[in-house]
Amino acid sequence: MNAPLDLNEFHWLMAIVQSIDVGVVMLDRECRIEIWNSFMENHSGRQPGEVHQQSFFTVFPEVDEAWFRQKLETVSQLGTPAFTIWEQRPYLMRFKSYQPITGQEDHMFQNVTLIPLRATDSEVAHICVIIYDVTEVAVNKRQLQSANRELKRLSSTDRLTGLNNRGHWEEALRHEYARHQRYQSMAALVMFDIDHFKKVNDSHGHQAGDKVIKAVAELVLARVRTTDVAGRYGGEEFAVLLPDTDAEGGRLFAERLRLAVEAMRVEHDGVAIPVTISLGVADLGRRSNDYQQFIEWADHALYDSKKGGRNRTSLYHPAAQ
């Protein structure tokens, strides 16, 4: 009397498997496909009859066979489910994404569950592979992460120049100074400003002044290393922190930058605006009280360059104070 009910239950179960919005694939121990639901049919474009008893790896050659076989073997041996998520691997099978909101993605992001299926003798004879389309979740999370990165960048970046803003630059300097105190590492600091910048604004207007500031910043960005920290200190004043660099290395960097700026011409309303900079260089080769004193040294050297006629580089010397 139970047979018709069992048959009905099986029919209902298969109807559910076919209609749910997840992929269901049943594999035998040789990784041959035995069950293939409509989700798989719709996204792969292959009918169940085409793939029945075919090797999973023949049907999906993009799958990392060694890795997936190891996952299947672990599930079979332990008799417990296993999982993979899109953040570990974006997908198991490369299906196109047809999500209306996330249609810009060229593939479906997938979470995958592997479930051991025991036979009547309690041996794991088959494994059910369930594929979840998590494209919308993945895209939303990636967009949020991207937005957070952009917010972080904007919070630390000077909008006009693209250099680090003063707050971020000073924080980097504070960390570098702490590193120096702990490991006696060397660092050089270059501070400079644009000569006669007020005259540029007065003669050509503030738009021309902004052009000059941006042009100088571009030259700085083109010359710093990835470990260097370049920032706009305020107005027309800039600062570049050079880790693992002594005063002579800082002077060479400053001189190359000074000559590049001197050779540059900024065009505004058909007028070429000549630009020069004055620079001061200090390093951590002498005892200091805090990172603020490091700034004072470089600023004092900058003042010496201005006092000496501008468009030049000066090194900090304590006796000069």
TrEMBL record:
InterPro entries per record: Diguanylate_Cyclase, GGDEF_dom, Nucleotide_cyclase, PAS, PAS-like_dom_sf, PAS_4, Rev_trsase/Diguanyl_cyclase
DNA damage as UniProt keyword: no
Catalytic activity of the protein: 2 GTP = 3',3'-c-di-GMP + 2 diphosphate
Enzyme Commission number, as recorded: 2.7.7.65
Keywords for this protein: Kinase, Transferase
Pfam families to which the protein is assigned, alphabetical: GGDEF (PF00990), PAS_4 (PF08448)
Claim: Translocase is one of the keywords in the record: no
SMART domains given in the database record: GGDEF, PAS
Boundaries of every GGDEF domain copy: 185-318
Name by which UniProt lists this protein: diguanylate cyclase
Organism of provenance: Pseudomonas lalucatii
